[in-house]
Amino acid sequence: MLIKNSLLLFILFVLIFLSCKKDTIQDEYLNQSYGSHERNKLDIRLPDGHNANTPMVILIHGGGWIGGDKNDMASFANLFTLNGIGTAAINYRYANGADITYEDLMVDIGYAIAYLNGKSGAYLFSMNRPCILGYSAGGHMAMLYAHAYDANNKIGGITSMVGPADLTDSTQISLLVAFGADSILWDLMGSSIPLQQASPIYRIGDVPTQYIYGQLDNLVPYQPAKSMYDSLQLKNIDSEWILFNDADHNVYGTNFQHADSINKATIRWVKTYGD
User: Fold this and answer.
1) Can you say how many angstroms the Cα of residue 88 is from the centroid of all Cα atoms in its chain?
2) pLDDT at 181
């Protein structure tokens, strides 16, 4: 499936680029259970010299809401810890259209945040205003949770990397149909929930949001996210739009040419809005 292949290619690029920096992690707490389901696991990685003021970013993997793994985000942890930022990469339940829909995925993020709140004192990191970063389906989840489900206004900032912002968008649906992946929407939603309810563009809150997209993406069109960015701008909510004209769903680029720009932008965003 294209979703899986695009994600694997992206992960390969990031692993190659960041593998030499693994020694920046001082402490790791892996496969921590934050809930009762077997998928409710997370990996905490903390930088050298971390303390109670070390900012955290929560990492959400992609995979079309029905696949992927927190290990896919391990290289992001290397990047952030190199720059003094702690990370928590989470697994979440896979949507199946029956007893697990997008609402349950939102619950999982909430449970993970509650777990991190409880461990911040013992493990020495700050959860005052964590940031949240997601790639592809994880970007969708990051936007939706922070804008619509963060009842305690806990999230300091969002980074969505090629995350779908509008599941009702005709181009988005057409692209999924073209690749035979339209069934994942019903896995995500179930049979009776309107797609609008799970579309971040219709659930806008007041959370600073960074958007990183590729103009040539043939899986997630960038235009809905740009419209969401424009709406945040009209509301005077801090937001940033980054579009690479030569990138597709692997927003880093076929030759990894955008890695430096993206890495600098995401680090700056977390350091600005995380606490």
Assistant:
1) 11
2) 73
Six-digit token pair at 187? 């896995």
- Of the pLDDT bands very low, low, confident and very high (cuts 50, 70, 90), residue 75 is confident
The beta strands (E) that lie in the chain are given as 25-33, 41-47, 56-60, 86-90, 131-135, 157-161, 209-214, 239-244
pTM of the predicted protein model: 0.91
Report residue 265 CA to chain centroid gap. 15
CATH number reported for the structural domain that contains residue 46 in this entry: 3.40.50.1820
Tell me the two tokens of residue 176.
């999924």
Task: Give residue for tokens 């940031």.
Answer: 131
At residue 31, φ and ψ (nearest 5 deg) are 55, 40
Domain region containing 130: 2-273
Strand pairing class (41-47; 86-90): antiparallel
Q: What is the SS3 string spanning 12-36?
A: HHHHHHHHHHHHHEEEEEEEEECCC
| Total domains present in the chain | 1
